[in-house]
Amino acid sequence: MYGPTRMLVSLAVLIVASALGGMAGCASKAIPAAPPPAVVVVSTPLRQEVTDHEDFTGRTDAAQSVDLRARVSGYLAKIHFRAGDEVKQGDLLFEIDSRQYQAALDRAQAEVDGYDARVKRAEADFRRAEKLLPSNTITREEYDKIVADRGEAAAGLASAKAKVEQARLDLGFTRVTAPISGRIGRNLIDEGNLVSADSTLLANLVSVDPVFVYFNIDERTVLRLKRMAQEGRAEVRRGPDVPVLVRLADEKDYPHSAKVDFIDNRVDPATGTIRIRAVLPNPVQPDGQRRFAAGLFIGVRVPIGSPYQAVLVSERALGTDQGQKFLYVINDKKEVVYRPVLAGLLQNGLRVIEQGLESGERVITDGLQRVRPGATVEPKLEPMPVAPGRSETPKPAEAPPKANTAPEPSGAAAQPRKPE
Question: Domains in the chain, ordered, with CATH?
């Protein structure tokens, strides 16, 4: 039999042995290693020639538009075109029944012949009277009557000739020709219908080359450009032919060039905008068609400066922190540095960085969600992503100065240093 004291001693030994065994087991387990640095894609900024700009929307319109109406009345005899055809100036389009106008011309010509005979007889009578008057063979009254008849015959001949000219014009007006070259719409009246002079609309004809592009510039942009010119931050160029770029609704870039030829003289108080018009060439394409037509939706890019060398990064490299744009930059210790920047315009998928980024720095372009400021990463250098469709590769960034030229809504071209 064991006593209570011996039982307590045995229990204490078991507890100590169990504790020592647990400590030995913990000591035998390996301490987990630290995770490897996150791998991120970095690129150096690009240097590219860009032009600051403002984008607007507009519509194309025909440079010339003519509503075709007949100048004489009659029944429509023939249509000489197909709806939608391109016609040249002077082409025959409509023909009105000309028989009554031909008859009127013949009648007027007959009157001319009759008055011509009267004039010849009056001239003969006048010559005889001049010879007989000195010998008092005829009285002065008879002589005056012969002179008057001669004058009346001459006046009648002039009036008859005028009627012939009018009848000839009316006969010519039965042939409706194209006053301009362009594309004609559908005929609005069919053959056999009565056409009323200067009233019945026959068709519409619009010019096709060039076309006009109308767009509006908002009041804030107008005031900004004027203020830049007044403060001497812009070089003003007066006159038309300010270049702009345009694109169609299904085009991403602005591949077409136009020139401003008209700027309205007032701001529309109802819309707060000023109307501007540009002339856009519209030649025939290799497929025989023209690219632009009246009424198309058009994007317009107005340069606000001459080209300059800018530092650009991919749009996806930029982050936003409560309205502040920032980049993650990798320093020499492979640490992530938070860098607030001033972002400029978007140029073909690349964002202009006006302030906050130095030349040659490495910018994280992929993996922003896996890093935080101060973290150590493993950078993987790749070329800066460029917008699709660009064949050129911009050069690494340097520190170039800016010098811009911009169109100013009062008919001038301004040169701001950078957009505000």
Answer: 39-51+307-414 (2.40.420.20), 98-173 (1.10.287.470)
